[in-house]
Structures are given as C-alpha cells and as structure tokens.
Amino acid sequence: MGSMTPRGEQLVLNYLSAVGQASYGYLTARRRAAYLTELRSRIDQACDGTNPDEVRRVLASFGTPEELLARECSEDPDDEENGDGATDDSSGAPRHADREPPPWRGGPDRGLFGGRGATAVRDRSGGAPRGALLGLASAARAYPPEVFAISVYLVSALVGEVALVWAVGAALVILSDVWTRRDKGVAVAVPLVATAIGMALWEGQAPYIDQIILFSLVDTGVVGLRLAALGCVCYLLVRITRIARATES
After folding, report:
1. Which of 8, 48, 100, 150 has a CB 3.0–4.6 Å from the CB of 55, allowing a cystine?
2. Where are the transmembrane segments (predicted)?
3. What integer pLDDT is reported at residue 196 of this predicted model?
C-alpha cells in the first residue's frame, strides 16, 4: 500500500487515540501499548487504498473503540497484578485498573481546573494557567486549521462590526475531520439559536418583514450572536486542548 494521505493518517491517529482512551483502566500500560501497535499494523494491512474514504471504511469495519475492546480485549494475558494495579477477572470481563483517569479526560469531576485532574496539571506544568497555555500551544501546533477557526469565532465575538464573519468559522468547523459531531452541533446551533432569541427580543417597529429581520438582526440579534460566539470559543478551546493531549498520550 502506498503512503497514506495526511487526512487518512489523522483519521487513523484519532481512532487509535479513542481506542487508547477507552482502554484506560482496563488494560495495563504494557498491554495497551502492544495492542495499539498491533491494531495500527492491522489497519495498515486492511487499507487497500490511501484516500480518507477507504480509511473510514476500514475503521468502520473494526467497530467503535468500545465494541473493539469488548470483542478483543475482554481478558489480559497477564495472570499477576502489575504496575497498573490491575488484576485478572475470572469472569472474562475487561480488567479494570483502580486509578483515576488522566487529566486530559477531565478526571472524575470532569473539571478543567478543579478537583484531582487540576492537581495533576499543576504537578506537571507548575500551575493550572500555565498548563492551560501549554495545552493550547500544543493544540495550535497539532491542529492549526481548527485553532484558526476558533480565532474567527473570537474576532466575531469581540468586534461587533464583523460579527457575521462567524459564518466563516462555522464553515471551517463543519469541514474539519477533527471535531466530533457534538462539537460541530454546539459550534453551529448555539450561535444560530442565540441570534434568533436576540432578534425575537427586538422592540422596534418596521413596516415590512424584510426590514424587521434586518433591523432586529443588527440591533439585538448580533448581541446574541456575539455572546454565543464567545461561549463557543471557550468550549472549543477546551475541546481542542483535550484532543491534542489525548493524541500526544
């Protein structure tokens, strides 16, 4: 098989990252690394072509990460407790290591800067704000188009005269292979709904429907759009930082 296209390679890496996250706590570190290496080899062998559509077809044939692990990794070959603190389950269910999820998965409380997950970030980075900045820098290096889309959202939120440039950022989010379906839904639906609510709150008057739409959009709809765009910036920054950290892991 020829070399895989960059987009196809990214699809494979995203899938392997998802498998790695799903296996956390169920496979030991040694077993997890060996399994992901084996799985990557199987994916490469199964891809007859190098285009993204072929890669998606192959990944779909393997199933979701959870289905794959349930089917293939219900038992770990090690019989003794190891460094991850996991022990065998005679019932054949996935082995579970008694440890917290890594910080980039949010920890038990799913907090960004709070709880035990935040402690781990501070330990590694010397402070939560610094850890967040390092995570954002890592995301910018790994996913520049996605970070650029977030910057478009930020500009539309801060500069009222160009608030409608938000549509460009929304298009970039939709076309990206990195964001999940939920991420895309939030990035597109929330500003639209907020704009509609803002327009509905307009108290002015106009004789024609097209004038009502235009004036309400300019007066109050843009306010809702800017607030929603700012909220999307916060949401997407957290998401892209976590995606980048999960990929690096």
Report:
1. 8
2. 147-173, 185-202, 214-238
3. 94
**Whether residue 73 sits in one domain with residue 41:** yes
Closest CA to 134 of 174, 157, 104: 104
Is residue 123 domain-shared with residue 181, that is, in the same domain?
no
Tokens of 28: 């030991």
Does one domain contain both 124 and 154?
no
- Rounded distance, CA 44 to CA 15, Å? 13
User: What whole-number distance in Å separates Cα of residue 94 and Cα of residue 76?
Assistant: 8
5-31 pLDDT, tens per residue? 888 888 888 999 898 888 877 788 888
Quick one: pLDDT at residue 74? 62
Are 109 and 43 found together in one domain?
Answer: no
Q: How many structural domains is the chain composed of? A: 3
Q: Which domain holds residue 116?
A: 101-142
The terminus-to-terminus CA distance of the chain in angstroms comes to 27
Candidate from 23-32, 149-158, 172-181, 185-194 with smallest mean pLDDT: 23-32
